Amino acid sequence: MNNTEYKGVFVFAEQRDRKVQKVAIELIGKGKELAKELQTTVTAVLLGTDMEDEAKRLCYCGADNVIYVNDEMLDVYMTEPYVYALNQIVIDKKPEIMLFGATAIGRDLAPRVSARVHTGLTADCTGLTIEPDSDEPEKLNLMMTRPAFGGNIMATIACPNHRPQMATVRPGVMQAAKYSEVNPVNVEEYKINIPKECKNVEILEVTKIIQQRMNIEDAKILVSGGRGMHGSENYAVLEELADLLGGTISASRAAVDAGWVPKDRQVGQTGKTVRPNLYIACGISGAIQHLAGMEESEFIIAINKDETAPIFDVADVGIVGDIFKVVPLLIEELKKEKV
Ligand code: FAD
């Protein structure tokens, strides 16, 4: 394969309900860094219908170009039409790098497209860099890092012989580029004739689960409980602390596996990656798989009765003590502040 024919960093701009998802904006942020090193541009690929404003927003969020396919068949995600459309775009535009969010949609779509275009895919990346140097500077590889062997090591993977280099990236890991309406708007309306036979499934109805709590990936403040909470009934005290701070609760896998907290609250390698301004870890030991999901938080407070708990290694403030004494005291103090 002649790798030098392939140019540009492409980002799949995942949309749901005709709204571009946050992960796509994060990927544009990362894509810009990669593109700068490769001296190329970032192109967002948007598939949907009636999404002209969102296409424009992608430019304001840092995309140099947007390829927008406006087609009824792409309104709601369905595997076959999406794979067909994206495959056509990759064959035609020949990107050097193609990034997807490691969401349910990205995880379904990316491997199918990579198989069709006969390239590799590194799933669930937490780090992306360009190799520092090479004998052939025009063929610099993307170094894709992801946890391996149960999160005990980080593996860095390259795809030197095939293009595009494809990766899925976990939501919340990369930093979104700054929004600016000064950015030029370059939207290409791209036409694809998606054959009717491509669509083997009819969506009759979409039933949404109503979230009563804030999504933990969007929360600025998280109060997180682990096995040290000793039971679901004890989460009420964490809920109270989270409410007072204007945040929400999250949990370690131990607490989720015990059935104390729903799975959508889980932080970590097999849960969600979060980057709040404040993360309060209560009765969480700080296993590597948990840290993988929260260590990029801006400020970390850990409360644990074991002073040797590894969570203290990443904490900005560590409190050695019993959660059931420390948390009520924090609540009391915060209530005084609010009066
Ligand atoms: P523990 O490790 O049991 O720690 C409980 C802590 O509470 C202890 O440090 C203890 O000192 C403290 N404590 C107890 N009582 C009190 C008290 N009254 N006051 C103060 N402190 C107290 N884990 C995740 O969290 N997220 C993941 O996504 C994840 N993915 C995984 C993927 C794989 C492939 C594997 C193998 C594991 C994964 N794990 C994950 C599990 C991880 O290895 C740990 O088992 C888990 O994080 C432990 O949760 P914990 O810290 O709540 O419990």
Concise overview:
Residues 9-208 form the Electron transfer flavoprotein alpha/beta-subunit N-terminal domain. The protein has helices at residues 22-38, 52-60, 79-93, 104-116, 235-245, 253-257, 288-294, 311-314, 323-338, and strands at 9-12, 15-16, 19-20, 42-48, 65-70, 97-101, 121-125, 127-130, 142-148, 153-157, 165-169, 187-189, 221-225, 248-251, 278-282, 299-304, 317-320. It has 339 residues and is of the alpha/beta class.
Description of the molecule:
It is a single chain. With 339 residues, this protein is α/β, with parallel strands linked by helices. The protein has helices at 22-38, 52-60, 79-93, 104-116, 235-245, 253-257, 288-294, 311-314, 323-338, and strands at residues 9-12, 15-16, 19-20, 42-48, 65-70, 97-101, 121-125, 127-130, 142-148, 153-157, 165-169, 187-189, 221-225, 248-251, 278-282, 299-304, 317-320. Strands 7-11-6-1-4-5-12 form a 7-stranded parallel beta sheet, with helices on both faces. Strands 14-13-15-16-17 form a 5-stranded parallel beta sheet. The protein has a 3-stranded antiparallel beta sheet with strand order 8-9-10. β13, α5 and β14 (248-251) form a beta-alpha-beta unit. α3 (79-93) crosses α4 (104-116) and α5 (235-245) packs parallel to α9 (323-338). The longest helix is centred in the N-terminal third of the chain and has 17 residues, at 22-38. The chain is globular, with a radius of gyration of 22 Å. The termini are far apart. Its cofactor is FAD. Keywords: Electron transport, FAD, Flavoprotein, Transport. Residues 9-208 form the Electron transfer flavoprotein alpha/beta-subunit N-terminal domain. FAD binds at residues 227, 252-253, 266-270, 283-290, 304, 322-323.
